[in-house]
Amino acid sequence: MKKVLDALVKVEAVLAAAILVILIACTFFGVLARYLFNSPFTWEEEVQVACMVWITFLAAPVAFHTKSHVAIEILVDAFPQKVQRVIEVLIMILMYAILIYFFFRSLEFISVLARTGRKTPILMAPYSVIYGVAPVSIILMLISYTYETVKKVFLTPAQNEKEEA
């Protein structure tokens, strides 16, 4: 399972990096067009916004999987071991609740965008496609978090180390 998750995370990271290259190139050529040729691209901002949305939602599961997100562990570490375990379980429950809540809210948001047929003004790209990456991202975070939760709850520290190797 770890190999599958690692491969999935690698694909997400590569895709986010490719979109970042597109964003940088679009911005670079947009600046050139505007200031050197005095002919700005009218569609540039729409592409940039779409790229930023996709980069954000593709990179979030990567950060989640690699534990690169911000965590304040000093508070938990101040408690005795048994209390730390209880806090960890409460955090797990809270994380699931938050991810599931955001998943359903993002589906509602995409549904409204699709139903109303909202599109970007210049490229006429459907907003539902631009923001459609959000629920996918949340599902990937849920999968990754479930894997980590199962490891934490059912495996001993020695088994966890073996799994990581």
UniProtKB/TrEMBL annotation:
Highest taxon, organism lineage: Bacteria
Q: Which residues form a coiled coil?
A: none
* Alphabetical keyword list: Cell inner membrane, Cell membrane, Membrane, Transmembrane, Transmembrane helix, Transport
Membrane topology term: Multi-pass membrane protein
Which one of the record's GO molecular function terms can you name? transmembrane transporter activity
Instruction: Output the InterPro entries linked to this UniProt entry.
Output: DctQ, TRAP_DctQ
Query: Which Pfam families does the UniProt entry name for this protein?
Result: DctQ (PF04290)
- Can you list the GO cellular component terms from the UniProt entry? plasma membrane
Domain named Tripartite ATP-independent periplasmic transporters DctQ component is located at 23-152
Q: List the transmembrane segments.
A: 12-35, 47-65, 86-104, 124-145
Major localization listed first in the record, in broad terms: membrane
Q: Name one GO biological process term.
A: C4-dicarboxylate transport
Q: Where in the cell is it found?
A: Cell inner membrane
Q: Which PANTHER family match?
A: 2,3-DIKETO-L-GULONATE TRAP TRANSPORTER SMALL PERMEASE PROTEIN YIAM, TRAP TRANSPORTER SMALL PERMEASE PROTEIN
Q: Which family does it belong to?
A: Belongs to the TRAP transporter small permease family.
The entry's protein name is TRAP transporter small permease
Species name:
Agathobaculum faecis
Q: What is the lineage of its organism?
A: Bacteria, Bacillati, Bacillota, Clostridia, Eubacteriales
